[in-house]
Design a protein that fits this description.
It is an enzyme of class 3 (hydrolase). It contains 14 helices and 14 strands. It is α/β, with parallel strands linked by helices. β8 and β9 form a beta hairpin.
């Protein structure tokens, strides 16, 4: 009963959180609030198999939908000239950021349609922005009294609706993004002014919110952000993670990232994100994620974004392939407009990725990095592998169709049992094995109507030796 009592106090009386945890971990076999203990927790296997997730940035910043989701900060803190000029031209002098709240209408938001679309995209998990740096919560938080989606704007529990739709209609894992700090919250600014010696913002706002969303929505991924100005101790991240892994309703399945305070990024936590759009292009020792955006310049919706600012499907798939070849997952972001209807450009990219995965998912889901990540003799070829009782199969992702009639690969060492095929195509391909390794695959002309997909083709090479 000790754990239940303390967990309840952590939610209802946030100022008692630290004292509560100190008593909890003295006599319970669980994770302790230190990095050695937290980092010892194995990463639940489903995450490495999943490969693709959908990130959704949606909030009050979707109303001005100009510059980026950092609109308020650029307007009031950085006084970024294009944003200041935008406000001066289009809004009265006494207009405040809070006035945008009532215009966050969400009239076309249909959680069922969103969930269905994410499933068709071939994703295996969703990470929804429950709160960004503006402080507006997309759920009726008790700790954001008049600045949440039930009190202002949609008058709906957005997080709850999407959670229910995702879990009732799909097999996708449901995750939440939550930002630790808030740009202009008075308590945070006061703590910052003290050199983070006081923790009023953490005790009365951030930590209670975090316990609240875990207890209420039971996310399978907790993506933390906004940590970089203060140390881990200020955020009380270790106490939260120890509770999350030991006592929370998702203690056995939840996965977290690495954004928990100064010094934690790319070093501690579950999977590493290291930085936005992180894609190192080489194999990493620790499981990582490429959190990236289809809109190259913003995570939130931009009304004035030209087509050139969106990744083409070729760019998107190539980014994805390089990511998984090097051991990462890709979290692909979309930013819906204020009304909640996902824009055609995002819908098209999601469905294109989904159609490609229907053909080539065998080389993606539950695959692992090979000894070599990319080819040396032919540019634009990246590898994954799968190993079972019959041996190891390689999947060569080819960015440019070999219209010369031959696909030359230097790295695979084939055996007498090796067969070469193209995912989605019914006929085996002839090849010539080279010594000591490598092969030349004969690629005859294939009618466009019989091509299995339009972009990034995957050759399967079975029974390789290396």
């Amino acid at each position: 009963m000790t754990s239940l009592t303390c967990a309840g106090k952590g939610l209802a009386f946030s100022f008692l959180i630290s004292a509560c945890f100190l008593s909890l971990f003295q006599d319970v076999n669980g994770y302790e609030p230190n990095w050695k203990s937290i980092d010892s927790r194995p990463l639940p296997g489903w995450y490495d198999d999943a490969k693709l997730g959908i990130f959704i940035h949606w909030g009050v910043f979707s109303v001005p939908s100009f510059s980026s989701e950092w609109f308020w900060y650029r307007w009031k803190v950085k006084k970024y000239p294009p944003v200041v000029e935008f406000m001066e031209k289009n809004y009265p002098p006494d207009f405040t950021y809070a006035d945008f709240g009532k215009e966050f209408t969400a009239e076309f938001f249909d959680a069922n349609k969103w969930a269905d679309m994410f499933e068709k995209a071939g994703a295996k998990y969703v990470v929804f922005v429950s709160k960004h740096c503006e402080g507006f919560t997309n759920w009726p938080s008790k700790y954001s009294f008049s600045w949440n989606s039930m009190a202002v704007g949609p008058k709906r529990d957005i997080v709850g609706e999407l959670m229910n739709a995702t879990r009732s209609r799909t097999d996708l894992k449901f995750g939440l993004y939550h930002v630790l700090y808030e740009w202009l919250h008075p308590l945070y600014l006061k703590d910052k002014e003290s050199g983070f010696k006081t923790q009023d913002f953490v005790n009365l706002k951030t930590m209670p919110e975090m316990y609240e969303i875990v207890e209420t929505y039971k996310p399978e991924i907790f993506f933390s952000d906004g940590d970089w100005e203060a140390p881990v101790e200020y955020w009380k991240s270790l106490e939260f993670l120890a509770w999350l892994y030991t006592y929370s309703p998702v203690k056995d399945t939840v996965i977290v990232n690495d954004r928990w305070g100064i010094g934690a990024n790319c070093t501690h936590g579950g999977y590493y994100t290291c930085g936005d759009r992180y894609n190192p292009g080489v194999l990493q020792k620790h499981k990582w994620e490429n959190a990236m955006t289809i809109d190259k310049r913003s995570w939130g919706f931009r009304r004035n974004a030209p087509l050139a600012d969106y990744l083409s499907i070729e760019e998107l798939l190539q980014t994805f392939v390089i990511t998984i070849s090097c051991g990462g997952n890709m979290l692909m972001n979309i930013g819906p407009p204020k009304h909640g209807q996902i824009s055609p450009i995002f819908e098209e990219r999601l469905l294109q990725v989904g159609s490609w995965l229907k053909v080539n998912g065998e080389g993606v889901y539950a695959s692992r990095p090979w000894t070599y990540q990319n080819e040396t003799v032919t540019k634009g070829v990246w590898y994954t592998k799968k190993t079972d009782a019959s041996g190891t199969s390689l999947y060569a992702f080819v960015f440019h169709w070999p219209d010369t009639g031959t696909l030359s690969l230097d790295l695979p060492q084939v055996s007498s049992a090796t067969k070469v095929s193209l995912l989605g195509y019914p006929t085996l391909f002839n090849y010539h094995a080279r010594s000591p390794r490598g092969l030349d695959i004969s690629v005859p002309p294939i009618a466009v109507s019989k091509m299995p997909c339009q972009w990034v083709w995957v050759f399967k090479i079975t029974a390789v030796v290396n």
